[in-house]
């Protein structure tokens, strides 16, 4: 049911509610912004959340319950169109419905980004967005609870205290389930033999190597630490100026009809947000200052389109009147593809280790010192073609010349000599009596899009939009994914780990022989992948002339008071899992919003 709050200090509740700020989406990013803006008691904040409270949902709270919430009423399970470059099948894109958003159903991994890939945001024209400026916000958001010495030693967990927060709202730590295992040391020696060194802390801006990553978990309560638990539950009684409407769907923005509305070039001012309440009532909630869209990378661009902000032709086809012509809304969708290899367990290895072992190998470690230059040359030569292909996917609303520049920047990160970004995340755990290595290529070049299909389509149903990530559209994306599969095969064949490894189970050498070429392995991977659930970029922060949707203040071009703060604004994919970076971005965004209110 609804979070009930008595209207306080000048706040109006109900049908003609007016607030300083309206935050659309009480998810990972939205709750950060709501908490921070409401720190000023004179400022009123309304959060509109489509789902309910998940505080007592056991599929959410159980920190070892990954997957339990999938397919339940709190999983949007959006469907893509058939993926023509990847086996022809549609894919399911999961996202969490409820207070806390996707942080309530995710895998809890807390890994950040490579410092030079955040620096790239500034290099492409987003002033102020670099690692040096963002690191303090990663720290501000975090509260690392350090396990006792016995747990640290048993789980082979290390960290650099200088890059972690001690007083932030978000509790991080390591999951229980780790015993005094021999596996950590075994893997360390194995990866070292493969040229992949131990990384004592992958959260300091350099991710490559082998490590044991922390999780978003409240270790004292042994409960998932999602955005609601971190950023909202602790203040729900005290923050009288913050109201959360649950089970309330934002339908579209409404605009002020002041002079200039509809005139080319004049910035549009949002009046508020049209909502549909739980009992089907439609009304408008008004914002005196700003509307902040935090509905996630799969929804915020759709809300812009439904409000008349987007590609004129797409809006016209859906019967929506154009308010701001911003043709790249919904473009630049970047996700990763997730595959898994499985192997038998040999030599009566009985330790049921649940530790968060991860390898982040670089291109050189994946393809080998002798081959990496040839791989790089092939990718470099293909970049102009990639740019043209992506431009044609989006009807040339992003120019091939601009995309080629961006692709060169991403290429530089992949093949950089000083600080190469890892190209795969390789996990290892036991499940169902086998070794399971789920993995994903970290830096694909493919880009797709999502667009609204009808003016009144709900953004909270799995069918409200046409979503196309274009998995495996471009050659590198296949090369990277196949390279990582072969890396995993080598890892299972390398001592001392290989001593506890039985025959390959999936795909199995009969299905994909040991000497299979890129095409054979690639074809199997394309038949057996899923989305990695890391969609970003659909309202990208970039200069407008190169295809951006928001500026470096996260303000939507052509509007005076609408921002996007969520995974939509990331211009490029990052190598870490997303929430740590989203918490940091939202913390920084909150400061930008506060500063602009003072100015
Ligand atoms: C299965 C899965 C596993 C993952 N594992 C990890 C992991 O281990 N570590 C990690 O860091 N990341 C992981 N991720 C990714 C990460 O959780 C997400 O990228 C991140 O939570 C997205 O945050 P966001 O703020 O962009 O959107 P969200 O957190 O999704 O917030 C959007 C909110 O808006 C609400 N909303 C949507 N439409 C409307 C509307 N019309 N009106 C009102 N409200 C609306 C939603 O209900 C939701 O609460 C995973 C994701 C998935 C799906």
Notes on the structure:
The chain is of the alpha/beta class and 599 residues long. It is built from 15 helices and 24 strands. The protein has helices spanning 28-37, 58-61, 115-123, 131-141, 149-155, 183-193, 227-232, 300-306, 312-317, 363-367, 372-393, 400-415, 475-492, 518-527, 578-598, and strands at residues 18-24, 45-48, 78-79, 92-93, 142-144, 170-172, 209-212, 217-218, 223-224, 242-245, 249-255, 270-276, 282-293, 309-310, 324-325, 337-345, 357-360, 424-431, 434-441, 449-452, 465-468, 501-506, 530-531, 562-564. Strands 1, 2, 10, 11, 12, 13 and 24 form a seven-stranded mixed beta sheet that branches. Strands 7, 16, 17, 18, 19, 22 and 23 form a seven-stranded antiparallel beta sheet that branches. Helix 4 crosses helix 15 (578-598). The radius of gyration is 23 Å and the shape is globular. Mean pLDDT is 93; it is low at 1-15. Flavin-adenine dinucleotide (FAD) is lined by residues 24-30, 48-51, 94-97, 101-103, 105-109, 249-250, 294-297, 299, 459-460, 533-534, 566-567, 577-580, 582.
């Amino acid at each position: 049911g609804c979070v009930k709050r008595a209207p306080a200090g000048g706040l109006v509740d109900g049908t003609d509610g007016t607030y300083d700020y309206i935050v659309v989406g009480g998810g990972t990013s939205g709750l950060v912004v709501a908490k921070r803006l409401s720190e000023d008691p004179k400022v009123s904040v309304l959060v509109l959340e489509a789902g309910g409270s998940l505080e007592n949902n056991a599929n959410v709270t159980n920190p070892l319950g990954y997957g339990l919430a999938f397919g339940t009423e709190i999983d949007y399970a959006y469907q893509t169109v058939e993926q023509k470059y990847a086996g022809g099948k549609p894919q399911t894109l999961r996202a969490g419905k409820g207070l806390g958003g996707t942080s309530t159903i995710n895998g809890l991994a807390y890994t950040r980004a490579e410092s030079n890939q955040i620096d790239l945001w500034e290099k492409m024209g987003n002033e102020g967005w670099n690692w040096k400026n963002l690191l303090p916000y990663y720290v501000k958001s975090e509260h690392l609870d350090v396990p006792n010495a016995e747990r640290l030693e048993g789980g082979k967990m290390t960290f650099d205290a200088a890059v972690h927060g001690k007083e932030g709202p978000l509790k991080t730590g390591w999951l229980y389930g780790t015993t005094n295992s021999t596996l950590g040391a075994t893997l360390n020696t194995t990866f070292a033999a493969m040229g992949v060194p131990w990384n004592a802390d992958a959260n300091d801006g350099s991710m490559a190597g082998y490590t044991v990553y922390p999780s978003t978990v409240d270790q004292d309560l042994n409960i998932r630490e999602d955005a609601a638990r971190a950023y909202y539950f602790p203040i729900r009684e005290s923050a009288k100026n913050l109201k959360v409407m649950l089970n309330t769907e934002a339908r579209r923005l409404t605009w002020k009809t002041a002079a200039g509305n509809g005139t080319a070039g004049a910035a549009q001012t949002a009046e508020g947000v049209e909502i549909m309440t739980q009992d089907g009532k439609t009304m408008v909630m008004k914002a005196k200052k700003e509307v902040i869209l935090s509905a996630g990378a799969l929804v915020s661009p759709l809300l812009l389109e439904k409000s008349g902000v987007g590609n004129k032709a797409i809006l016209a086809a859906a019967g929506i009147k154009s308010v701001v012509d911003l043709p790249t809304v919904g473009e630049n969708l970047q996700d990763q593809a997730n595959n898994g290899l499985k192997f038998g367990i040999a030599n009566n290895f009985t330790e049921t280790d649940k530790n968060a072992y991860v390898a982040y190998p670089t291109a050189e470690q994946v393809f080998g010192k002798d081959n990496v230059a040839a791989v790089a040359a092939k990718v470099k030569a293909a970049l102009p073609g990639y740019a043209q292909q992506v431009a044609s996917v989006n009807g040339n609303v992003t120019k091939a010349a601009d995309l080629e520049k961006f692709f060169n920047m991403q290429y530089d990160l992949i093949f950089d000599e000083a600080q190469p970004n890892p190209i795969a995340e390789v996990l290892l755990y036991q499940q169902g009596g086998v070794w399971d290595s789920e993995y994903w290529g970290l830096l694909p070049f493919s880009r797709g899009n999502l667009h609204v299909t009808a003016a009144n389509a709900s953004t909270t149903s799995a069918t409200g939009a046409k979503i196309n990530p274009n998995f495996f559209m471009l050659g590198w994306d296949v090369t990277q994914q196949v390279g990582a599969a072969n890396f995993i095969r080598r890892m299972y064949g390398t001592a001392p780990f290989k001593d506890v490894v039985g025959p390959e189970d999936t795909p199995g050498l009969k299905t994909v022989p040991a000497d299979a070429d890129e095409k054979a392995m690639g074809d199997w991977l394309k038949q057996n992948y899923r989305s990695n659930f890391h969609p970003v970029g659909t309202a990208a922060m970039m200069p407008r002339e190169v295809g951006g949707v928001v500026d470096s203040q996260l303000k939507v071009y052509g509007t005076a008071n609408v921002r996007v703060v969520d995974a939509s604004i990331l211009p490029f994919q990052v190598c870490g899992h997303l929430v740590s970076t989203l918490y940091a971005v939202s913390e920084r965004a909150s400061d930008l919003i506060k500063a602009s209110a003072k100015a």
